[in-house]
Amino acid sequence: MNGWLKAMNSTQRARALDAAILVALFGLALALRLPLAGTDPFGDEAVHYHVARDFGQPPAHVDNPPPDRSLLWGRPAFFLLLAPAAQASFVAFRLEHILLASLLPSLVAVLARAWGAQRPFAAAAGLAVAVHPLYVLYGVHVFPDALLTLWSLLALWARRHGRMALAAILLVVACWTKEVGLVLAGALLAADMARGIRAGTVGLWPLRATAEASLGLFAALAGAAPLAASQLLGARFPGWSTGGPAWALVDLIPLSVWLLLPLVTATLRARTRSLSVLALVYPAFYLLYRFVLGRRVEEWYALLPGALALAALAVLLGSWIEEARGSRRLSRIVGTMAVAAALLLVAVSPTIGHPFERVTRPFTTSPGPDLVALERDLPRQHDLQDAAAYLRAHHAPQTLLVDVGWFFVVYPFSDDVDELRYRFSDGTADQADGWARELEQDGLTIVLWNYESGKVNTVLRRVYSDCVVYRNAGYSIVDGSGCGDHRDELAAELGKVEP
Amino acid sequence: MDLRRVASHRAVDPVLAAFAYILACGLRLPLRSAPYYGDEGMLYYVSRHFWSVPANVQDVYLPYYYHFGFIFFQRPVYYLTYAPAAHLSFDAFRLFHITLSSLLPVALFYLLRGHGVRRVLAFAAALVTATYPFFVSFGAIALMDTYGVLLFVGGLALRAHGRPVLAGLALLASVGAKETAWFGVVFVLSLDLWTHRARGGRLFPMRASPLATTLLYGLPFVLLPLSVALSHGLVPGAHATVIRPDAMIDGLTLAPWLALLAALGLLDRRTRRLALEGLFFPVFLFLTHVVAHRSVEAWYTILPCTLTLAAATLTLDEACDRARRHVLPVRWGVPATALAVAGLLLSTPIVAASETKTRILHPFYGEPVPSLAEVYRQEAGRDPDYWDAIRYLEGRPGRPAVLVDIIEPMFLYPLADEGRQLTTGFTEPSVKFQQDPRPWAVAVESGGSLTLLYKYDTRLNHAIRDTYADCGVYDNPLYAIYEGEGCPGRAEQLAAALAARTS
Questions:
Q1: Could you give the residue ranges of the DSSP H alpha helices within B161-301?
Q2: How far is A445 from chain B, CA to nearest CA, in Å?
Q3: Is B230 on the interface with A (CB under 8 A)?
Q4: Are A419 and A365 part of one and the same domain?
Q5: Could you list the residue range(s) of the whole structural domain that residue B280 is in?
Q6: Measured CA distances, A480 to A397, A440, A448, A487, B439 (Å)
Q7: C-alpha–C-alpha distance, residues B70 and B83, integer Å
């Protein structure tokens, strides 16, 4: 081993070291994500699995199934990539995603190196992605964001190495994985155009573009096609819900509000400008979207901007250290190192968790679990799959889901049932007769989510507690056929519920 | 007088265009006072109030909500253009639409002239759009489609006359008037990028024409309002439910054989581009129907019909040119065919609907094609029961009204627009979500209010009718009006009536 190292010249040694770091980052990411592969599906993930497996065909035996055909056409690259594994099982689907998402830490390090960051800083940025709970969680849960980040980072890497056609193709794949890739495609196009105008190679009127800008234009136009197609099929404009605290966005999108200032500072330096501008484009876009339309984005939208911010930060910190070293003043070197360490610590603060996170993400009102809690608690979450397994084992002709998330209707509950309906109980306290009629049917099995704050749900579970045939922390299963007449008791109990 | 010289004079084109315009206006004006059609009342209301939710409307159960933001931002160019006229009155709104929509024959005439079509054929095509009953109906009914088509066809005409920037702006504006034009504009852009190569343009690295440049810069901006609309939760168009594919084939062109004529234009270099543009929308809309199960209503077909007509006319013109070089039967046969086609289409407004007429014009689905006189009669007699009921309410100004199963397009104008206090609700969702029926009774019995009910076949609708039958003050086959104040305290009776119908 030693002799082998000695035989290499310095360039070869450097490459070997880089490769070792990348492999280590990949290994670490995999090690943190793999133990979580068998946990319950999370929200939309169940729908993603169903679409990847069945290509959006609604399950025939589900009454009024949630529509998801537009989802397939809106994000075709995401579903097609995961479709082969999805044919095998949900865990295989997850495993394929985990393998791909575990490449992200290495890619962030590669990107930072491509922009000139020193090895330790690039490795630190990669390490941050490997251990940050957000990246761990959405490296496991199959949402399109990790893959969007993967293709986008690869596209940026290809551009950095002058492979513009490859970059354009990767950008199109990114946009076809998740439509918000268009923001990056648009920003890169604008950058190419601006550069061309300065160099006199791009004319705005009539449009005369360079090869790079032309490729960027095609990427942006082709990237928008699935968005248009999904709208045509009746999709809602990409899933951003209304409201939510606006400023919490800046805690989320560049990972911490404290990173905004160094990122802005980085735009002033030629070496770090392009990457930091790209890192700032997403927070600006989402903030604009929030303030103009009142719509917010969910936490998984932070994966791509967070990765860009970490890579940009690594490049910036590296350039600071270089300058500090050049000054040959120990105090400056030590001070710069301290600032660099503090900023990296801020970036990964959710890994450590609270109370430190309260300072680094002051606008975040409900922080998620830290890394230790995540790795400890998440593998225990099997309630949903256990309830579905019980249902499969005791095959019922009819199943009614009450208050079960609509995404779980298509998976896991629609598998191996003859007839499936779903209902929600909020605001139905005046429907005692309807509930009794619905629940007390021969051959009906009812799956209730243990919705603790749901008033009607709580009453239903209490009144029918003698018919519960299975219960875990998340779900109760009631055998409706052997449940006698609870109509009067239910009416009395629901009558006490305040509307 | 040398007739040939007169006919070739430059001033003849404006004279013919003016004639087509006056004729179009003249044929549309008799419909200016016809009862409004479908969404027209709502469009008028939104043109006056934009996206603001009416303060005088409330819901039986919840605070009133209707997606006015979506409606406005989906088609802002239309609302902004029509707003001044709408602020005067509904008649002014209609009159403005008639004067604007009558420009469509003019735009088509200049489009064809710009492509070198001989004057007589271009004029004949213009006359078809001026007189054809379908164009006359939607030239008087102030939906946005004819305005959007005018901008689109106007854009193509400006392009044909060497005004690429204005052409681009008109095409972009057409997207703002009716979003379906977006797909057509993208197609026009793609064709322009492709065909521009012959004039020194390139696809890679890109060297675009002024028209393509205008469209490339403008398209993202015209998408913005649509994005805002979509983010408010609704998607334009409708799901294909009742409209069958054969009806689409008939409806997307004035007559299916006209599309065949247009398709022949693909064979020739001169006619190919307009043939492609003419056939794009019929093919696109048919494919979205078959593949995506989306459907379009009659008014969406104004654009495909106009463009197919333009492409077919250009093909006939080219055929006439080629026929000149052939032997006698062909030399005269082709122009005779062109005149026969023109004559057939121009006779449509005069000839009453018949089986033969239907077989010629709508051979697949067989929907009758009325004459102009029949259209006038049809439009004048639209929704007589509704308007009779509205007249009853208008005879009692200022009284609050409860509207049962009356949809927004029907009550926003005139009822909401005149400032009357309204309570609205729909029985179908109420039954579906098993809502408590008592708030309906509270609304119906509230002080001084009149309840206008559309006789809809839901259990709750029947229960309301049963409960308040003795308080009815007006009735016709489709609508009933109740004076609930005289029948107080019937909430439990209503709940019982609903329960009885449920069991």
A1: 164-177, 181-195, 210-231, 245-251, 256-264, 269-292
A2: 22
A3: yes
A4: no
A5: 10-377
A6: 12, 5, 12, 13, 33
A7: 17
Give me the sheet containing B401-404, strands edge to edge: B57-59, B422-425, B401-404, B450-454, B479-483, B472-475
Place of tokens 């089986």: B355
Q: Identify whether residues A89 and A179 lie together within a single domain.
A: yes
Calculate how close chain A gets to B216, using CA atoms only, in Å: 9
What strands lie across the sheet with A398-402, from one edge to the other? A420-423, A398-402, A444-449, A475-479, A468-471
Number of domains in chain B: 2
Whether residue B404 sits in one domain with residue B372: no
Torsion of Cα atoms, A219 then A222 then A225 then A227, to 10°: -10
User: Which residue type does A493 have?
Assistant: E
User: Mean of the pLDDT values across residues B39-64?
Assistant: 91
Interface test with B, best of A73, A230, A237 (most B CBs within 10 A): A237
ipTM of the modeled complex:
0.76
Q: What is the distance between the alpha carbons of residues B236 and B244, in angstroms, rounded to a whole number?
A: 19
Number of domains in chain A: 2
Residues of A in contact with B294 (CB under 8 A): 232-234
Same-domain check for residues A338 and A459: no
Look-up of token digits 């008799």: B30
The residue from B377, B394, B419 where one domain ends is B377
d(C-alpha B306, C-alpha B111), whole Å: 11
Facing A231 at nearest CB: one of B203, B208, B235: B235
Q: Phi-psi category of A116—alpha, beta or left, where left has phi over 0 and alpha has psi -120 to 50?
A: left
User: Would you call A395 an interface residue with chain B, using a CB distance cutoff of 8 Å?
Assistant: no
- Per-residue model confidence (pLDDT) at position A2: 65
Q: Determine the structural domain holding residue A477 and report its residue range.
A: 382-495
Beta pairing partners, B238: B295
The answer on pLDDT for A56 being more than 80 is no
Name B19's Cβ contacts closer than 8 Å, sequence gap at least 6: none
How big is the A-B interface in CB pairs under 8 Å? 64
Q: Among residues B105, B148, B145, which one has the least CA distance to residue B299?
A: B145
Cβ <8 Å between A210 and B204: no
Query: For A205-253, what is each residue's pLDDT tens digit?
Result: 999 999 999 999 999 989 988 887 777 666 555 545 666 677 778 888 8
Regarding whether B73 and B209 lie in a shared domain, the answer is: yes
Residue A64 and residue A173 in one domain: yes
C-alpha–C-alpha distance, residues A476 and A469, integer Å: 8
DSSP secondary structure of A142-155: --HHHHHHHHHHHH
CA closest to B209 among chain A residues? A206
Residue corresponding to tokens 């770091």? A21
DSSP state of A245: -
Residues B490 and B350 reside in one and the same domain: no
What pLDDT does A486 receive? 85
Q: How far is B379 from chain A (nearest CA, A)?
A: 32
- Tokens 């609270």 label which residue? A354
Least Cα distance to B146 among B128, B159, B134 occurs for: B134
DSSP assignment letter at B433: T
| Residues B488 and B467 placed together within one structural domain of the fold | yes
Are A74 and A45 in the same domain? yes
pLDDT one-digit tens code per residue, B180-209: 898 899 999 999 999 998 888 888 899 999
**B366 shares a domain with B425:** no
pLDDT above 60: residue A105: yes
Cα B439 from Cα B457, distance rounded (Å): 20
pTM for the full predicted model = 0.82
Residue B5 is assigned to a structural domain of this protein: no
Whether A288 has its CB under 8 Å from any CB of chain B: the answer is no
Structure token digits, residue A479: 């055998």
CB contact under 8 Å between B204 and A205, yes or no, is no
Q: Is the same domain home to A365 and A386?
A: no
Inter-chain residue contact A231 with B230, CB threshold 8 Å: yes
Do A368 and A396 lie in a common domain?
no
